[in-house]
Design brief:
four-stranded antiparallel beta sheet, 11 strands, globular
Amino acid sequence: QVQLVESGGGLVQAGGSLRLSCAASGRAFSSYGMGWFRQAPGKERDIVAAISATGINRYYVDSVKGRFTISRDNAKNTMYLQMNSLKPEDTAVYYCAAGIGAGTYYYPHQYDSWGRGTQVTVSS
């Protein structure tokens, strides 16, 4: 199992930026892909971005392409999500998750460890 702790959420005005961090412990960090999901009130938890174990392969949902950047530092056991040009529709609880293997995964069932989430609120 992997223990994950998110940080970096907060309240920001539209057009602003935030950087989320996800600190991991437990299973060897460089052995699994990771992802960021978000869940708005009354909605399902959806993928935002994903990254493979090596960091070479990355995936973004269309709505964040060009605005968000996912990265990881395997030496620090930490994954990041740099969020720029934030919009009110980005408001949600953001979760990091550890994948079942080393690949790039798109669906919640492909992840077996989750953080508790961090709130991101974008005001208009």
